[in-house]
Amino acid sequence: MKIKNKQSLSITNKLAMTTQIQLAIKLLQLNSLDLQKEIDEQIISNPFLEHENYIELSAISQEMSISTGNLEVKSVDQLNDIPVNQENLRDYLIWQLRLSSLTDKDRLIAYHIIDYINDDGYLTINAKDLFLMLNKNMEINFQEIFAVLHRVQTFDPIGVGANNLIECLEIQLNHFYKNHENYSITTNILNKVKNNPNANIVELDLLLNEINQHDESVSVMELIKSLNPKPGLMFVGNLDQHQIIPDIVVSKKEGKWVTELNPTINPKIKINKIYVDMITNIKNKEDKEYLKSNLQNAKFFLKALKNRNLTILQVAKLIFEEQREFLNQGEIGIKPLTLKDISKTINMHESTVSRCTNNKFVQTPRGVYEMKYFFSSELKTNLGESISSRAIKSLLENIIKKEDKLDPLSDLQISDSLSKNGIKVARRTISKYREMLSIPKANDRKIK
Questions:
Q1: What's the rounded Cα separation, in Å, for the pair 3 and 285?
Q2: Which end of the chain, N or C, is surrounded by fewer C-beta atoms within 10 Å?
Q3: E strands along 197-328, which residues?
Q4: 39-51: average pLDDT
Q5: Nearest Cα residue to 346 out of 370, 322, 318
Q6: In total, how many domains does the chain have?
Q7: Full-prediction pTM beyond 0.70?
Q8: Domain stops at, among 214, 236, 258
Q9: Distances, alpha carbon 285 to alpha carbons 76, 279, 282, in Å
């Protein structure tokens, strides 16, 4: 068998992943915080890029450096009293305890109390068990325990060491709002809920019901909202915290819903004209090539940044054209929507739409949501119309919220209720959605 070498020519079209395309894809995937980091890195590495308000920022920083010259330096003793890098709530409470004027006996009681305070700031042991434990090693009475506990509850953060939500709110109310015009009304509401025999089971529901019975419900609610239900969380060192900055803002202007980019996350950057003018005066070939290359990269970056913003805005506008009823009615108004629906309308690939919505957030009058939240599957009603699975979940939450707590509805009863309203949903689907919403079964929801 003879093997012959043969040459042939053919013309084919291939999409090359150029540096510009890679940059465009990278910027499209970044969320607002990562985008800010990328912009800062580009400004540092590329001399042609700068903030438009660079001169203003420089002036402000000089003013700050001048004004700090008059600051009073703390003494070494004062600095030693400042808590540095407190790792958790317990360390912070112990530090305050050491600075307190408690006796050795009371301090020992306080140490035991602090050991039984969880990350939320609540006491996880009752007074009786604490008395039995301490009484083994010292002579003690309940009055001493309550006195020390009351002292610990005045430590920062205020409300720490409470036995339950109502007591936590009560401690903060007495500390911060003793002279508030709604103090008496709010205190009476908290006392009424605290004395309810079912208070430990459904504290929040009882609290909301009591508030709604008063004429000043709005102002009382605002007062309670200003209190911290979990004061200890601000000191939890291992808590995974991250900041969310919306990329898109939806608001109502002159009776119309307007979708626009968040101006605060898109700092205005420009080409530095001084460096552009330098190119013509530089004779060294290597230096000239370096400047030309950086100038070209700066232009590509600005173009890619502009395209990113326009693409995200275009996708967001289409989403809220479809989900206008969400803005008017809430979750119950969400319509079925898929990535494919958007990609067809704007003639983009689904992967591009996915990059535009992944890890991007939108601020609406109803709260801040991830843009992917507005995509959901559909279910058919008896009338042949489509309804979003998110709308079903919202209906499910509302039904359970309004049910009789003494005789809660089963999944089958909820399914039948929806069917009577033209929405046919199987019992197992109701169970699945209920579990996704972390809502317990009917027997577990029943107040006994």
A1: 51
A2: N
A3: 248-253, 256-261, 269-271
A4: 85
A5: 318
A6: 3
A7: no
A8: 236
A9: 58, 10, 8
